[in-house]
DNA sequence: ATACTTTCTTAATCTAGGTTAAGTGCAAAA
DNA sequence: TTTTGCACTTAACCTAGATTAAGAAAGTAT
């Protein structure tokens, strides 16, 4: 059973025909590290589901500094939600940071599937609800925790990602400079 | 036409019967300033839609400091999403900060309405999508903008709220102390 | 293997924003 | 009407984390 179907069936159950229909509307592609799936200024046309590998989304702010928004590894979805739903150019980049096999679901097909399999409306609602809750928690953490505590939380939540992501990108995710991150890490190891 | 129905029909259209059914599952209540609608540790049973007045959600972190998550005025929804969907005790407070008339929709009725009016599944999906996008942007802003720039964005986005919310709560929302906010405001006025 | 590029580290210096403390103004109790 | 309490201000001092700069390590390409 494909990972993506397992993922969906965690929240809604599908008949064999529905599974087949769903899969027929998706496309599997492989990408090498450093591939850019989406550029800032482009319209995001697909949601990406990760079968293997790691992705990150980021933007580049005025200071020419990359700011990481999210990572996605096996079993996670990734897209520029703003651009995807508004159909306007977004400001996120999506990049492959570890060779990846992805399931591509175009926005067009996603909308089509909503009408053909209404249960999927529920599935994606739940998916986004969970994402919203996670973002709210991260927002509060960023406002009230120290960099050290945010790093600790990151380690607990994504223990398997730490070894697979360049350290400077973790630094960016938790919101500190690579230099400060390095210093902080050295301090933590000394304990 | 009730504000809440107008709000829903921005995204999906309802038949007169559906409108009536929807309204029959809600309840209108009035609350005075300082009423607590939800306490930390309680399970959030309702979504609140604001007909008039202002609400805020916040939590109290270890340092005994209130951290504002969100405000809601006319036409906005408010709930502790985490608690509402997980049915577990949350850590948010929801408080009335200006006398309010609210539409209450219990989680129970919301789930019931999902099955009776499947279109609502779409409505709430879209609502949450928009909320997610807003939270993502705020997260990125907190990671890459100065307090001054965050305040400026807040003023642009919620110009009508500024006069209605105690300044220390705006400070908390953008993530600075009341003292620093006061200093910053004085500096901005000098310009 | 060698050169080239990028990541990571260390350290000195700097600053946005926090902390502490004291005082002002004002609305609500009493 | 006084008192109490809260919201806001100002100012001195402090610190987490940024910036700058330079070198070390580790990939990557030639």
TrEMBL record, chains A, B:
**What Pfam families does UniProt report for this protein, alphabetically?**
cNMP_binding
Residues annotated as domain Cyclic nucleotide-binding: 13-108
Top-level taxon of origin: Bacteria
The record's listing under InterPro entries reads: cNMP-bd_dom, cNMP-bd_dom_sf, RmlC-like_jellyroll
Name of the molecule in the record: Crp/Fnr family transcriptional regulator
């Amino acid at each position: 059973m494909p990972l993506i179907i397992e993922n969906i069936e965690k929240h809604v159950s599908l008949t064999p025909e529905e599974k087949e229909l769903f899969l027929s509307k998706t496309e599997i592609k492989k990408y090498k590290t450093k591939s850019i799936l989406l550029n800032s200024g482009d319209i995001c046309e697909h949601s990406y589901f990760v079968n293997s590998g790691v992705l990150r989304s980021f933007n580049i702010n005025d200071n020419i500094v990359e700011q990481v928004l999210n990572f996605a590894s096996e079993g996670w979805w990734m897209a520029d939600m703003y651009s995807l739903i508004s159909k306007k150019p977004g400001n996120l980049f999506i990049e492959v940071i570890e060779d990846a096999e992805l399931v591509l679901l175009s926005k067009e097909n996603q909308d089509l599937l909503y009408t053909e399999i209404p249960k999927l409306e529920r599935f994606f609602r739940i998916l986004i609800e969970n994402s919203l809750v996670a973002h709210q928690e991260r927002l509060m953490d960023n406002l009230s925790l120290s960099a050290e505590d945010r790093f600790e939380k990151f380690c607990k939540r994504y223990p398997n990602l730490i070894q697979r992501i360049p350290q400077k990108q973790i630094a960016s995710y938790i919101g500190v400079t690579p230099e400060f991150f390095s210093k902080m890490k050295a301090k933590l190891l000394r304990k």
